[in-house]
Amino acid sequence: MIDILSLYPNEIEELVESLGEKKYRASQIFSWLYKGVTDFSQMTNLSKTFIAKLKEKAVIKQITVEKKLVSSIDGTVKYLFTLDDGEKIESVLMRYKHGNTICISTQAGCRMGCSFCASTMNGWRRNLTPSEMLLQIMKTEADAGEKISNIVLMGIGEPLDNYDNVIRFIRLANHKDGLNIGMRHISLSTCGLVDKINRLAEEDIPLTLSVSLHAADNEVRRSMMPVANKWTVEELIDACKRYIEKTGRRISFEYAMIQGVNDSVRDAEKLGKLLSGMLCHVNLIPINPVGGKNYKKSEKNSIGVFTRTLEKYKINVTVRRKLGSDIDASCGQLRASHSS
Ligand code: SAH
């Protein structure tokens, strides 16, 4: 069966024509889909016979809210969704002054194996379809009764490990008759798949790229992230520089601060030298301790010294404000507690 919500308008046109109907029906179907219809019968401007033919060929995918947690501190909402094959994923709705942001999942599980991350603990199950990524937004908007203006691909999964579906999702989310969310309101976070960063630089999509760097030193990075065995920090930074050159976009580097692992002045100096002169931003995230490793978040004081050291290299630094701390809002934790 065709997953119709994952199709581009021209592909729906092909489907419509193959069923013997006029092309313009495709734009009617496309706009119904983004109004959140769950069944072809709800497309009231289509004939009954056409609807019957559509139902034979295509499905409108659905996901269901399994659990919802609302933070009493800041109104952050975390959703656990069940997919049509029973897989579970998470999305988080964050409310900022500049608008609602949703953090969505791109895979059920993850195969990157980062030692500090809850999403990878039970391994990888499968890639999400573009429709399943769109539905996280549509269901959340419907449930919250609010519009979402920003998307971050920072939930469960490695977006660049599900490259084609993620690119298709981004184009559909951006489409004026789709979710109509501006490219500049979309951020994609990657653990640093160099070949895919190079590919992304060639797409004409001016999104914001975040790179989970977490260490400037290869040995330290390898102790945290298996992907660092495939590409060195230097190779990753070269790819980032090419990306910036090609797109003119600033890169945001994520740096999870772990006490005694990557938070010394020496670590900051190394990072400062590495990023000096680059069009970038560093986001320091006090680690949220999960899983097997005995990681502890850095002391406030070391984060302060780290920040000032980077600023000495004229690097723009912020410390991430934590939302939803009472509901385990960091992705992967809820899913992990729901899998057997
Ligand atoms: N796979 C992508 C996106 C998902 S993770 C990536 O690696 O970027 C989103 C961000 O949360 C990444 O920067 C990741 O390194 C970070 N992260 C994961 N687990 C964390 C934890 N326990 N504490 C703090 N940050 C964490």
What would the keywords be for this entry?
ten-stranded mixed beta sheet, two-stranded parallel ribbon, 21% strand, binds S-adenosyl-L-homocysteine, TIM Barrel, DNA polymerase, domain 1, 11 helices, alpha/beta
Written overview of the protein:
Helices cover 34% and strands 21% of the residues. It is of the alpha/beta class. The chain contains eleven helices and 14 strands. It starts with a strand and ends with a helix. A ten-stranded mixed β-sheet has the order 3-4-5-6-9-10-11-12-13-14, with helices on one face. The structure holds S-adenosyl-L-homocysteine (SAH). The site of S-adenosyl-L-homocysteine has 15 residues, from strand 10 and strand 12.
Topology record:
Elements: E1 2-3, H1 9-18, H2 25-34, H3 48-57, E2 58-59, E3 64-70, E4 77-82, E5 88-96, E6 99-103, E7 107-109, E8 124-127, H4 130-144, E9 150-153, H5 163-174, E10 186-190, H6 194-202, E11 208-212, H7 218-224, H8 233-247, E12 251-257, H9 265-275, E13 280-286, H10 300-312, E14 316-319, H11 333-337
Parallel strand pairs: 1-2, 6-9, 9-10, 10-11, 11-12, 12-13, 13-14
Antiparallel strand pairs: 3-4, 4-5, 5-6, 7-8
The structure holds S-adenosyl-L-homocysteine (SAH).
Name the hetero compounds present. Answer: S-adenosyl-L-homocysteine
Name of the CATH class of the largest domain: Alpha Beta
Give the helix level as a range of percent: 25-40%
On the 0 to 100 scale, the average pLDDT is 95
Shape: elongated
Q: How large is the count of helical segments?
A: 11
CATH architecture of the largest domain: Alpha-Beta Barrel
Q: Uncertain spans, ≥5 residues at pLDDT below 50?
A: none
Q: Largest sheet, described in full?
A: 10 strands, mixed
Order of helices and strands: EHHHEEEEEEEHEHEHEHHEHEHEH
Determine the structural class based on helices, strands and strand pairing.
alpha/beta
Can you list the strand order of the major beta sheet?
Answer: 3-4-5-6-9-10-11-12-13-14
Q: What proportion of the residues form beta strands (DSSP E)?
A: 15-25%
For the terminal residues, how far apart are their CA atoms?
30 Å
Number of folding domains?
2
The name of the CATH topology of the largest domain is TIM Barrel
Number of strands: 14
Q: CATH homologous superfamily name of the largest domain? A: Aldolase class I
The Cα radius of gyration reads 21 Å
